[in-house]
Amino acid sequence: MNLVMALGFLLVIIGLWAMLTQKNLIKIIIGFSIIDTGVHLIIVSIGYIKGRTAPILDASVSVADAANKIVDPIPSALVLTAIVIGLAVTALMLTFVIKLYQKNKSLSIDDYQELKW
Amino acid sequence: MIKQVLSLVAIVLLAALIFAPMLINTPLHTSLTPLANYYATQGADDLGAPNLVTAIVVTYRGLDTLGEVTVLFIATAGIGFLMGKKKKLITPKRPASELLQNGASFLLPIIILFGVYIFMHGHLTPGGGFQGGVVIASGILFMMLINQDWSHNVFLFLESFSGFFYVTIGALGIVLAGGFLDNRILPLGTFGTIFSAGAIPLIYSLIGLKVGTELVGILHAMRGEE
Predict the structure, then answer these.
(1) Which pLDDT score is estimated for B226?
(2) CB–CB contact B51 A55 (8 Å)
(3) pLDDT digits (tens, 9 = 90+) for A51-109
(4) Distance in angstroms (rounded) separating the CA atoms of residues B211 and B165
(5) Which chain A positions have a beta carbon within 8 Å of B14's beta carbon?
(6) Substitution target from A19, A20, A57, A89 for chain B, most B beta carbons within 10 A
(7) What is the pLDDT of residue B29?
(8) Is B154 exposed, middle or buried (0-12, 13-18, 19+ CB in 10 A)?
(9) What is the pLDDT of residues B119-153, one digit of tens each?
(10) B41, CA 20 to 30 Å: which among A82, B83, B109, B154?
């Protein structure tokens, strides 16, 4: 049991709820962003080790002692890149919304039936 | 109503069948995994970068980062393609308030300087190219708010320049050192100083420029005028 991971899953659930129930395209994208943040929290929490510090070697974390003092640096590195990609993907989705609105003058998902079956 | 009930059922099922078992069964680590242990014990000797996250992002998994910059580039290109050439804004523009103008012109150099500091010290402190690039883009956003735009060609040039040299330095690693994006094409220097860790500060600065200019490209495309 891990509190940060539990909060991450909670954020994923909130975001999924927003994506499934909201009609407004902007709100769906907000839901996606919340899922994004939740996934970041989950990944970071996997690498966390209680009582340890950030993986930066300096005066307080010597090179020889590093393996016993730092948390796992790999999830941090993955999340670091995921944050920027999340930003770019969100911007791309908002661009789609702008284009859809310019074409059909509507932000409601109910007005876009082309892919519905 | 029926849709909301169905959504609720789907989410409860997902939480009960996937999330809850993951949450309960994921062990709390008490020691590093073997790979992380290698990075922790050998990383400093291998690459000379005190910030191990930077060592992983720029060198150990440098190819991932190159791919990630490419994803960012494709997203930016998609936004630029979709937004296209612009008509004028519909609402008439009025000049920004004096408070905003003075505040922005006072803060802009400081924000840019801070962004450059973050990506220059990416191998020493928490931070690096991605964070520094975003800080720089926020400074440029300030400049767009007060309508004092530089020519966008400057950013396009910087973007191509940094992307090109990023790949060139990566390819130099094949010739001069152990492989693609190897940072040991330059001397490792003294551990913990700014000119150390081989090519990491150089590569991370180029990534910072690339990310910053790409985000400026997004802002420029979304700004809605040409």
Answers:
(1) 47
(2) yes
(3) 888 888 877 777 777 777 888 888 888 888 888 888 888 989 998 898 888 888 888 88
(4) 14
(5) 13, 16
(6) A57
(7) 77
(8) exposed
(9) 888 888 888 888 888 899 898 888 888 776 666 77
(10) A82
Give chain A's contact residues with B (Cβ, < 8 Å). 1-2, 5-6, 9, 12-13, 16-17, 20-21, 46-50, 54-58, 63, 66-67, 70, 72-74, 76-77, 80-81, 83-85, 87-89, 91-92, 94-96, 98-99
Residues of chain B with pLDDT under 70: 85-93, 148-151, 224-226
The CATH number corresponding to A3-55+67-111 among 3.40.50.300, 1.10.287.3510, 3.20.20.300, 1.10.10.10 equals: 1.10.287.3510
Q: Using CA atoms, how far apart are residues A100 and B124, in angstroms rounded to an integer?
A: 45
Phi, psi at B156, each rounded to 5°: -60, -40
Would the CB atoms of A9 and B23 count as touching at under 8 Å? Answer: yes
User: Hey, how many other C-beta atoms are within 10 angstroms of the C-beta on A53?
Assistant: 12
Question: How many Å lie between the alpha carbon of B185 and the closest alpha carbon of chain A?
Answer: 22
The residue in chain A having the minimum alpha-carbon distance to the alpha carbon of residue B2 is: A21
Which residues lie below 8 Å from residue A55, measured CB to CB, with a gap of 6+?
Answer: A66, A70, A71, A72, A73, A76, B39, B40, B51, B52, B53
Say which residue, A2 or A66, is predicted with more confidence. A2
Write down the pTM of the prediction.
Answer: 0.82
Residue at token pair 């520094």: B132
Q: What is the pLDDT of residue B93?
A: 66
Q: Given a cut of 90, is residue A29 above it in pLDDT? A: yes
Distances (CA, A) of B200 to A28, B7, B87: 39, 47, 43
Instruction: Give A25's Cβ-side CA count (13 Å radius).
Output: 19
